[in-house]
User: Fold these one by one.
Assistant:
Number 1:
Amino acid sequence: MSESKTYSIRDLSLEYDITPRTLRFYEDKGLLSPLRRGTQRIYDRRDKGRLALILRGKRLGFSLAEIRNWLDLYDVRDGQVAQARMLLDASEDRMQALLSQREELNQTIEELKAQMQQVEGWLDEQGLAAEAAD
Amino acid sequence: MSESKTYSIRDLSLEYDITPRTLRFYEDKGLLSPLRRGTQRIYDRRDKGRLALILRGKRLGFSLAEIRNWLDLYDVRDGQVAQARMLLDASEDRMQALLSQREELNQTIEELKAQMQQVEGWLDEQGLAAEAAD
DNA sequence: TCCGCACTTGACGTTTACGTCAACGTAACA
DNA sequence: TGTTACGTTGACGTAAACGTCAAGTGCGGA
């Protein structure tokens, strides 16, 4: 039973709410490379995983070019030690980028929180003033 | 002494490492509206603050259109209570977006960390095997 | 007064990330 | 055996975010 689950282009486009065009575009850019059954694309579990990574990368604001460079970091490979070292180095670079993005995100969140509290405080004052006017 | 600090287009482009073209583009899109001294743009402290927010928004992956909608949330305004309520509602929406982005970012970080540990583990095994071969 | 340099406004070009046809193949189903 | 649905490959279109000229304006210094 090596009946591994596979997906048509429509399956994936429905599940992830993207168009088939998008999937073909990602393939064209070297982000995906599904098998073919005749002329038709047939995606497997690995393709699906990569697609999920791609879409999350996009939501985090990375370009397809950056994402393509990083996708391999998630492929467990059977390379040599030297390859593994380079992989680790690249991973550390990406980790740094992610951490600094988290820093900026945290700052943005804190600042917005402060702004909101300020407006809330002002609203409370107005409420109290209205009460006092009774 | 209301000598508030101001900046030329070049000042800001150098400080934030963007081109003057970019600053004019942002103005065209309604993100900035510096004063004019004759025909020249003259940016003040508030403009500079907005620019910093714009650039951070970009680094976090938001479009200029989104950023424009959110910039006003950071302007302390002298509006009515109804205005303040709408402001708070909009702020909460944005806060939700930021929090869920942080969630995705954290997941990405955790997954990459796991991958890295896996590769490190493999490297250690190789090291031990080499030692044992002595 | 003239030079040079920074600034200005168009206008068109470019890259990224797809959308949108057109024209065709194929596979299942009544 | 049609026809209906889904799939394919081009080819061209488009929105966002600028880059890159071109041609003119204004101003402080020799």
Number 2:
Amino acid sequence: MEFDQAKNKFIQTWGALGTQWGINKTMAQIHALLMVSPEALSMEDIMGELYISRGNASMNLRALIDWGIIFKEYKTGERREYFVAESNIDELARKIAKERSKREIKPTLRVLQEVSSIEETGSTEAAQFKTKTAELYEFVSRADSMLEKITDYKESWITKTIMKLMK
Amino acid sequence: MEFDQAKNKFIQTWGALGTQWGINKTMAQIHALLMVSPEALSMEDIMGELYISRGNASMNLRALIDWGIIFKEYKTGERREYFVAESNIDELARKIAKERSKREIKPTLRVLQEVSSIEETGSTEAAQFKTKTAELYEFVSRADSMLEKITDYKESWITKTIMKLMK
DNA sequence: TTTAACTTTCATTTATTATTGAAATTACAA
DNA sequence: TTGTAATTTCAATAATAAATGAAAGTTAAA
């Protein structure tokens, strides 16, 4: 396979993966592009490589910055902004995990907490509801703290976790 | 909060969470509904509770069955089918993890493998590409096997994993 | 300051994904 | 075997999400 082909395939695949994880295609593609670029890229560069509009590029670059997984870079004497991806993959994964926990898991926990606290009525339905939502709360809560624990190692956390699990 | 309110809030929240994870709203809602129902529900019941069409119900029930997280039940002397959710939450999480690994992680690994194997050209760009995609392959591969290890405990895997990680 | 390069915003358009509903199919009680 | 209740399929439609592009907003060099 040629480099250009491979690069394209990688960007497309990463984009498709994004959509399956609730991240929009362009955002994932920009991220993919920046990851494999040895140099920082400008918005123009990105628009050119991915054939996307200025507005699209601008909005998704911002979103990536909000996630903390790409950064702006300034070149001396140049007005335009350049972008680079977080280069450490463990750090990348940590940031994604943290952000998803904050945006999705934590709010869900709040709701589970709330709905599982309804008052006991006599009905079987309400009883089952309380039981199940409380169980879910327990589970999600533990999963979230497990994720925190794992990613708290900061470096090579996957390897370290596997080591611990093998013992 | 009233039971009916709480139930509705739970179903809506679960549905919204689904969309953030690439699962469609109705599928997540049906699953939520079945989880908190003490009795098996028929397609009619589900259509009525969620205000959705027959076709929608049928397609999403099928998808849930494909994921292995809900089951059909037959009542003797009755023609219609009833549905129940996997009642064990650890088991539910294991099945979801397994399915997502199969559908998303494994295919991604194949692509990463493929694109990181392009032949060395002299260019910096190609070199960075190879390095990064190989690194990603390593990482995703390890994350996937970590997930496998964790969920292989079958029962109360979250608790067990946390225990191991605390040592 | 002005000016122009560059970026952001957002109403509109386009693309994607989900849902409907009726016809076709299936399957089972009589 | 029917006859029919129940389910599935899928083309058409609706709902949602993403992308465009031009105008407004910023910023810094001249």
